[in-house]
Amino acid sequence: MSDADPQAFLQAMYKEQCDQARQHETMRQQVTSTLLVLAAAITTATASTIAAFLRLTPDVRAIAFLALPGLAIVWIANLGKRLSIKHYERNQLHVERSRQYRRRLTDLFPKTDYSEINKFADEEHKKNHGKKKNLRVIEVIDQNLYQYWVDIFGLLSGAGYFLIVIPILIAVVAWAWPLVALFIRF
Asked: Residue 29 — pLDDT band, cuts 50, 70, 90?
């Protein structure tokens, strides 16, 4: 076996792991986009239906029933959180595997010091971004990116709970209004 064979194998495996890591980032983006579009469609349909019911004489049971799409939004948000975290975990697995292949590649060339490239790049990056004096900027830089993807679904979950509460609140007010109107003198 020649020296080029292990090098070619390690390079191919390194590239494969990098491609797999990128694939999970792409899949996370696609899943997020798909779930947000689905949630937006449900939210739009629900809001339009609530507005239509309010123009007519409100049927309390029908309005309360409109809280169910909010449950679907909360379910979509929880699914999105779990998928986002899973894709991050798979991405990190492939990143770690790629690091191991890169280490083996650098071991093939003991007289060179390629392993220092990342170290120097990391130091330069830290030096350039460490100049930031704004505490919020530093906080964002230090945070893991996957947390922002999870936060998107946290916001979506809040919208789902809002869509649960609003129709129920409207139904309670519509149901109680005739009783309240008896005690209010205009």
From this structure: very high
